[in-house]
Design brief:
Blueprint: E1 7-8, H1 19-36, E2 38-40, H2 43-50, E3 55-57, E4 62-64, H3 67-76, E5 80-84, E6 90-94, E7 97-101, E8 108-109, E9 116-117, H4 121-133, E10 140-141, H5 157-168, E11 173-175, H6 181-191, E12 197-201, E13 207-208, H7 210-221, E14 226-230, E15 233-234, H8 242-263, E16 269-273, E17 276-278, E18 285-286, H9 290-306, E19 310-312, H10 325-340, E20 345-347, H11 360-378, H12 384-387, H13 389-395, H14 406-415, H15 427-432, H16 438-452, H17 460-479, H18 485-495
């Protein structure tokens, strides 16, 4: 089975800021860290900061950072690091490599009515299989593709999702946290010889909750790199201006980065930007807007200068509720700008609206878009053979043709990108072929994958290890009252199904 290594960018990254603007944003970010500070609701983190010369207000959980410590921590972060899935599937983050992660949605939806509903276990497992089959899906994670599935208690949704990914894919995972879920996720990875990307999320503005700090300590101590994510809403949890939002966003991420480097210097960190605009008319976040991409252009340019791997996640969501023209242009423009500006990790495939709607048909359509942009990232190869002087000289003017030349047969597949779910027919052919559109072709491709693609299965001992860890989690949460009797009754029925676990 071919290993997915990500997309190599051979073109110069797009830039939007001057050197003076970058320096001004950096200075103001350090000023916020030194004068305003960041809230950490973790006694263990506060003590660690205090032991390393930070100004710590233990009563108000506020940390103010000396500039030298912040800049030292930025230097300590490696410029690249690796994740590992099972079956020796490895993936590198950093440099000129870009990797795609599906952008999750809470629910699946009906393609005729567009109404959302909770997916079934089988739909979750099948969608993971499709992800594993696609060329441009490079890794997966908690709550991917969906937040959970029918009859699973909320506290088990992340772990059941992690298990579904491990069972149906060899891709590496990023794993979330909460209610000790990360403990069991770490144990699953270690049982399979995998290396997860441990998630630590900011609570804007300028705050880290205790569970985020616990996740940082647990994942770093397990030897895993860290996925630091800040996701402000511009005008609500950050300033409305791009420059101001960048300052608070960067200050939040740098504070978490200092924590990670104090726990274990040299730990790999991916800093991820996940911001959206506030809709001032409704009070809700609005997705797919150009200002989110502008913010990510700025973010990517600044963090490339720090030589720290960069993630973008505003790329994955549209404000449309359907697979339609609006969904297409909002997502495509966002992912194009993200890749052009040098993001190393991008949440993109499968999502339609916000984090609420996901469908495998959209996942397949997004594979075509990602493949098309990957072709752009390859750039143009210029050498004696591609310049084709001898071929041009041989063919000459009309009536010459390049169609029959050996050079054309050799090079056309490398020069052209061929989408797998797009309508490429002539008008006459299309009229005779039931007028099928891209959604119809994507449905056909989905059916073909589910019928023919078989992911590498877990061994019987690996399956036993995963099931043992899930059972430990189930008992832990039942014992601590986090699974109600009614929830357990529905869950137990699902677990006793003769089709469990659909792997």
């Amino acid at each position: 089975m071919a290993r997915k290594k990500g997309i190599i960018r051979n073109i110069k990254p797009m830039e939007i800021l001057s050197k003076e603007q970058i320096e001004l944003i950096h200075k103001n970010t350090l000023d916020v860290l030194q004068n305003t500070g960041v809230r950490f609701e973790s006694e263990r983190a506060l003590k660690l900061f205090k032991d390393n010369d930070c100004d710590v207000d233990m009563e108000n959980n506020l940390v103010k950072f000396p500039r030298g410590l912040v800049e030292q921590s930025l230097r300590q972060c490696p410029s690249s690091f690796q994740l590992k899935g099972r079956a020796d599937q490895e993936l590198s983050f950093g440099g000129n490599t870009s990797c795609f992660l599906p952008f999750p949605g809470k629910d699946i939806f009906d393609l005729d009515t567009w109404e959302p509903r909770t997916p079934t276990r089988k739909e979750f497992y099948d969608t993971v299989r499709i992800m594993d089959a696609l060329d441009t899906v490079h890794y997966t994670g908690s709550y991917v593709p969906f937040f959970g599935f029918k009859d699973v208690p909320p506290v088990m949704q992340m772990l059941e999702g992690d298990a579904a990914n491990f069972r149906n894919s060899t891709l590496p995972l990023h794993c979330n946290y909460g209610n000790d879920c990360e403990v069991f996720a770490i144990n699953m990875a270690k049982a399979l010889g995998a290396v997860n990307l441990g998630v630590v999320a900011v609570s804007p503005p300028l705050s880290y909750q205790e569970d985020a700090c616990i996740s940082a300590f647990r994942n770093v101590e397990a030897g895993f790199p860290i996925y630091l994510q800040s996701g402000a809403t511009y005008g609500a949890t950050s300033p409305v201006t791009t420059a101001g939002a960048t300052v608070t966003n960067n200050a939040e991420l740098m504070a978490g980065l200092v924590l990670v480097q104090l726990i274990k210097p040299g730990t790999g960190v991916l800093v991820s930007d996940f911001g959206f605009s506030q809709n001032m008319r409704t009070g809700y976040p609005v997705f797919g807007r150009i200002e989110s991409s502008i913010h990510q252009l700025v973010f990517n340019q600044i963090w490339r200068g720090y030589k720290i791997p960069i993630g973008n996640h505003s790329t994955g969501a549209s404000n449309s509720k359907k697979i339609d023209y609006q969904c297409g242009y909002e997502k495509t423009s966002a992912v194009m700008l993200s890749l052009l500006s040098g993001a190393n990790e991008i949440g993109y495939h499968g999502c339609v609206y916000g984090e609420l709607a996901f469908h495998p048909v959209q996942l397949i359509l997004d594979d075509d878009v990602a493949g098309m942009i990957a072709r752009l990232m390859e750039g143009v190869e210029v050498n004696q053979e591609t310049l084709a002087f001898d071929v041009i000289n041989n063919v000459g003017p009309i009536p010459g043709t390049f169609l029959t030349e050996a050079h054309t047969r050799k090079w056309w597949r490398q020069s052209q990108f061929i989408p797998k779910s797009a309508d490429s027919l002539t008008y006459g052919e299309w009229m005779e072929a039931d007028k099928k559109d891209c959604i119809g072709y994507a449905k056909d491709r989905m059916d073909e994958i589910l019928e023919n693609y078989k992911p590498e299965p877990l061994s019987s001992s690996e399956e036993n290890d995963i099931e043992k860890i899930l059972n430990e989690a189930r008992e832990h949460y039942r014992k601590n009252g986090l699974i109600s009797g009614k929830e357990w009754e529905a869950y137990e029925k699902d677990l006793k199904s003769p089709e469990y676990p659909y792997a």
